[in-house]
Structure formats: structure tokens, C-alpha cells
Amino acid sequence: MNNDLYAVVGNPISHSKSPRIHSLFAAQTGEPVEYTAIQAPLDGFADTVTGFFDRGGCGLNITVPFKEQAWAMAAKRTWRAKKAGASNTLFMDAEGQLNADNTDGAGLVADLLRNHGVTLAGKRILILGAGGAVRGVVGPLLAEKPQTLVIANRTPAKARVLADLFAEDAGDTRLSGCGFEQPTEVFDLVINGTSASLQGELPPLSSAVIGPDTRVYDMMYSPETTPFNRWALDNGAITAIDGLGMLIEQAAEAFAVWRGARPDTAPIIEAMRDTVG
Ligand code: ATR
To answer: Which of 76, 142, 170, 267 is most buried by a 10 A CB count?
Structure first.
């Protein structure tokens, strides 16, 4: 019997770790999955997606710069994709309709809760950034019922817009948006969702947000400690986690959406850590 076809679509795509991760998932679960990487032309994303499903493809992961386009072209969206405004997971349903999901936030929450034992309920959380990456995780973070969620961004107005967008999902959580200079109290968890590290820069944050029990999480990952995590550790954070676990958990969540089977991620994270350092 032929394997079911899946792929990740992006531009560029050659450095994507998704084919390796999903091959490991397939081997572990015994699911008949074949997973490749497809580079779509910058002006040809929709044709690439349509062509893939026309050839009998079962599901796609979507990465930079196409997540918003994937979201826009879907006929249906899951709750967590709706507010995210972007999709990293597409699949065709039994009626032949294209569905958009977003597993990034679930991936972050799963990594924090399951792999690092960081609980979020009742906690004070600060998240840095207000771009697509942060928008994708705010809904699932709020679903964990933190006491406070402060969104701080270089452009404060964008943080406020995001806080307004999610106000209806906040429940009892105190949700607000501001600039980097505003938070000066200690948080339980500080998440870096900016792309500042790509330029080797640090968000200009007061070290007063870091207390002796503060954990930090950088949604980026690299073989060396990221600049943000280094800064936090130097200022007394108890733990600094990078985003490799989030990458693997969002993939596991997508695999579960497609196959109905969630891989055991611990051995996969270990295997992948060995290859990123
Ligand atoms: P992504 O999909 O990675 O979120 P994005 O939507 O372009 O990409 O958002 C990038 C985020 O990183 C934004 O919050 C951006 O701040 P602005 O909204 O003020 O542009 C933030 N960012 C990028 N470079 C930064 C830097 N050098 N210092 C601080 N924040 C930065």
C-alpha cells in the first residue's frame, strides 16, 4: 500500500526540520506517512497547495511567509486558527473542504506543561512581541487561565491592538498591551516572541521583571543559549528554555490532527537536540 502524502510548504524551505521530525513520528507510531518539503514560488502559494491536494495529498504544514495566505484560502478554520489569523496546518476534510488549523500555541503550551513542568494557571505571564508569532499563541495561553498576561512590544500600539482582539477570550485573566519600558514588576514567566534575536538584538526590557523564581522561554532555538535567555540567566532567572520543544510539539499536534495519533515527543526532542547542539 502507498504511504499517505504530507509536506511542509515555505520559501525558503531547505533548512526545515519538519521532514525529519515527521519521519521520526511516522517510524515511532507506525503510521504510513511520507513527508516532504516543498518550496512554493512567492507568487504561487495557492497553486502549490491546490496542486498538492489534487494529487491526493492529505495534509500540509505551512511556514514563512505563507501562514496568513494559508489561513485566507481555507474554507473552514478551527477555533485556535480563527483568532490566530494564520495557519500552520492544512487538511482536506471528508466533504473535500480545505481546513485551516494552527498548532503553534498548543505546541508552546504542551512544551511548557509536559516537558518542563511549567504550569500557567494563576501565573503572571509577560510575552514580548506583537507579530504573527505572538498572535498565534495568545489564545492557547489564555485558555490555561493565567492570572495576568501582559503583551509588550517595541511598537506599543500593536500590543494594545492584540490585547483588544483577545479581550473576549480573557475570562478572569488580566490582559493588557504596552511598550517594553512599562513592565517593571516580577513575572513568573517571560516569553520572547519577538524576532529581535534574528538581528542579534535584545528587547530593551527592565531586569526588574526577572525574580529568583522567574522562568523564561525564547520561542527561537539555537545550539547556543539565545541572547534573550543569556540576558535572563545573567539577571537571575531560574530556568531558560528555548523553542526546540515548541517546534516538535506543534508538529506532534499537527500529526495528531491528521492521523488521530499523538507521537511520544520526548525521544524525538532528544534526537533533534543532538542535531541542533
Ligand atoms: P513574526 O511572525 O516572527 O512574529 P512579525 O509579524 O514581523 O514576525 O513580528 C516581529 C515582532 O518582533 C514584532 O513584535 C516586532 O516589533 P514591532 O511590532 O515593533 O515591529 C518585533 N521585533 C522585530 N525586531 C525587533 C528588535 N530588534 N527589537 C525588538 N523587537 C523586535
So the answer is: 142
